[in-house]
Automatic annotation (TrEMBL):
It comes from the Eukaryota. One of its GO terms (molecular function) is RNA binding. One of its GO terms (cellular component) is small-subunit processome. It holds the Pfam family WD40. InterPro entries: UTP4, WD40/YVTN_repeat-like_dom_sf, WD40_repeat_dom_sf, WD40_rpt. This is UTP4 small subunit processome component. The lineage of its organism: Eukaryota, Metazoa, Chordata, Craniata, Vertebrata. GO terms for biological process: maturation of SSU-rRNA from tricistronic rRNA transcript (SSU-rRNA, 5.8S rRNA, LSU-rRNA).
């Protein structure tokens, strides 16, 4: 393969928002992560920790706590004082209910999943009954002084422990009365803020602003043990289902594990012992989840870290991989090959850039779209964040979608200036990704709705053929439906695979559909013949290279070589790979990453040892890669150091020899 000219782009100033809280659903194996922007991300443990869904944020609403109920009901509370249920099909708020207690700081569900308890600014703990499709107010518990910052249910469902300023309280749920009121001593006249509490079977665990983790007898309020874990704040707590391991998150970015161990071999006496310390964050660890075999932590540095506990992992698998999620598992960049334009998606704005393709000037960029002040406004009206966007191949049309609407603009270039016109008459396929299970095609005279029978899952991916004849729609359940746009009817269904796709595209010349799934399997499906191609069957028969399937980051984009039909490119955050369908597939015995070794061989030896996968890891982290022509491509990077410079200053720590 000839060398490629790379246009290296590093001016996409995307800043992921910090993580505020986490909630894990053990029934479905899903993790919900709320960011400071108000966005909620859903990750699936069953699908290689893939980011299945993203609920766009809202500038007016912050999220302080989340709670799963049952298989697929998710509730959030925040400083607006409302309880909100999220519609996980339409990916938007389903309804909201005012708690009438001021800002809500915490929330928890009882073990029977019949009631929600919330802690409010006015010092009240309110109970809401969970009924189908809504919530119903039940009662208030005895009001205490000061805001309720944390709460937890006893596993029997009859008691609630709360933490606030300088005090831990225990309430009887049936009577609503306070059984235990335990004051916490402060240090140096500092107020002690109880940031988090756990209610174990035989004790209460608290984490506070003095950096202590304390264990209390919940019946008498007696202090059983104190662990000084940090000189700063201990912010979050999590316990595993067996209640023999506790994790603590601090404002220094450390996660500390305590385990319940025997003091003497065979003696029967046990106590909590500090066993491990993990340092994967630089700022506050606000969210923490402890599963059977892993710790999941999220902090203000915007990193979501999955740390497997190796003493719980028996075999080498996806569960044994340390993962750090910073960027979305979807592309935030659109590229126009014809016009050499890049469209960058931010939560509240879009940026359109033009690539300077003159080699005599040394290369450069020119931002065409610097602001969105009225009347040229392509921002989401109001406070809704942008969910997805697209740029036409010719570069003349831009579309974006929020939770409430889809906007389309026509871009006109005249004498170096750019103007925008809101379109109203053009046949266009709207991609309302993840908002419904329907595709809408609007025209000048007619509108059509394409909906597969029996499909309940929302659409996660959409791919349209270059000739405008075909469209492929993939749902979150992994079902891929093919539609004929000329006839406005369903053409066929791709055989369902047990893992959902992370990226898909239709070849511009052959109209074959390429899909890559969460377990990194690659499929090629012929739309006209309604079957997998011979190359795809050969790939599945031989199997992919072990090093390929052991990767822990999903493929987010597929692009094709416009001049060589047998070549296509796909990429994740750490590499891009050009696959040539005319070359042999790599076997398990050969080296997958063999580019450096091939350079030192003769031409004949290079041809004999070359295989179909050409992998490059030079550019990291990758947000987007697009082939512009046979010998050039554009690479969009977002260096982590640039993101770190925009973070607030971390807690100052004393270091040796400084």
């Amino acid at each position: 393969m000839a060398e490629l000219l790379v246009h290296r782009v590093r001016f996409f100033d995307y800043l992921p928002a910090g993580l505020r809280c986490l909630s894990y659903n053990s029934c479905s194996g899903r993790l919900a992560a709320a960011r400071l922007s108000g966005a909620v991300e859903i990750f699936s443990f069953n699908n290689n920790f893939f980011q299945e869904k993203v609920i766009p944020g809202d500038d007016r609403k912050s999220i302080e706590a989340m709670c799963w109920v049952g298989w697929n009901r998710l509730f959030t509370v925040g400083l607006t004082g409302e309880i909100m249920e999220i519609d996980l099909q339409r990916l938007c708020p389903k309804y909201s209910l005012d708690a009438f207690g001021g800002p809500v700081w915490c929330m928890s569900c009882n073990p029977e999943e019949t009631h929600l308890a919330i802690g409010c600014e006015d010092g009240s703990v309110k109970l809401f009954e969970i009924i189908p499709e809504k919530l119903q107010y039940a009662r208030n518990l005895d009001r205490q002084k000061g805001r309720v910052l944390s709460l937890a249910w006893h596993k029997a469902g009859s008691l609630i422990a709360t933490g606030s300023l300088n005090v831990i309280c225990v309430f009887d749920v049936k009577s609503g009365e306070m059984d235990v009121d335990r004051r916490i001593s402060s240090q140096r006249n500092r107020e002690c803020v109880v940031w988090s509490v756990l209610f174990l079977s035989d004790s209460i665990v608290s984490a506070d602003s003095t950096g202590k983790v304390q264990l209390w007898d919940w019946q008498t309020g007696t202090l059983l043990n104190t662990h000084h874990v940090t000189k700063c704040d201990a912010l979050s707590l999590a316990v595993n289902p067996a209640e023999d391991s506790i994790a603590v998150g601090t404002s220094e970015g450390t996660v500390i594990q305590f385990q319940l161990l025997e003091t003497k071999s065979g003696g029967g006496d046990v106590q909590w012992v500090r066993t491990k310390t993990f340092k994967y964050h630089t700022h506050d660890v606000r969210g923490l989840v402890h599963t059977k075999s892993a710790l999941v932590s999220g902090g203000l540095d915007a990193q979501l870290v999955l740390r497997p506990l190796m003493d719980k992992v028996e075999t080498k698998s996806y569960e044994a991989a340390l993962r750090k999620v910073i960027f979305p598992h979807r592309s935030l960049v659109c590229c126009s090959r014809e016009a050499k334009l890049l469209l960058f998606q931010f939560p509240s704005q879009l940026e359109l850039w033009s690539l300077d393709h003159s080699p005599l000037t040394g290369g450069g960029e020119r931002e065409l779209w610097l602001s969105f002040e009225p009347p040229v406004d392509c921002l989401s009206q109001g406070s809704d964040h942008i969910h997805c966007c697209c740029l036409s191949p010719c570069g003349e049309w831009i579309s974006y979608a929020t939770a409430s609407r889809v906007c389309v603009y026509r871009v006109q270039y005249q004498d170096g200036s750019v103007t925008f016109m809101c379109f109203n008459r053009l046949c266009l396929l709207f991609e309302c990704v993840s908002f419904s299970s329907h595709l809408s095609v609007w025209g000048i005279v007619h509108a059509g709705c394409l909906s597969p029978a029996g499909c309940q899952e929302s659409i996660s991916l959409l791919a349209v053929s270059a000739d405008g004849e075909w469209v492929a729609a993939a749902s979150h359940g992994g079902e891929i439906n093919i539609y004929n746009l000329m006839q406005l009817m369903q053409h066929c269904i791709v055989p369902v695979y047990n893992q959902p796709p992370t990226a898909m595209a239709i070849h511009p010349q052959t109209n074959n559909l390429l899909t890559v799934h969460t377990d990194h399997q690659i499929f090629e499906f012929s739309l006209r013949e309604k079957r997998f191609t011979d190359w795809s069957r050969q790939l599945q028969q031989q199997g992919l290279h072990p090093q390929w399937v052991e990767r822990d980051t999903p493929v987010t984009h597929i692009t094709f070589n416009p001049d060589v039909p047998t070549q296509f490119m796909l990429h994740d955050m750490y590499m891009f790979c050009i696959i040539d369908q005319t070359l042999r597939l790599p076997t398990a015995k050969c080296h997958l990453y063999n580019q450096a070794a091939l350079r030192g061989l003769s031409a004949n030896a290079r041809r004999s040892q070359a295989h179909a996968f050409k992998i490059c890891k030079k550019f990291q982290p990758l947000l987007h890669v697009e082939m512009l022509s046979e010998d050039s491509l554009v690479v969009i990077e977002r260096p982590l150091m640039d993101i770190n410079t925009h973070l607030p200053a971390p807690v100052k720590q004393k270091k040796f020899a400084t």
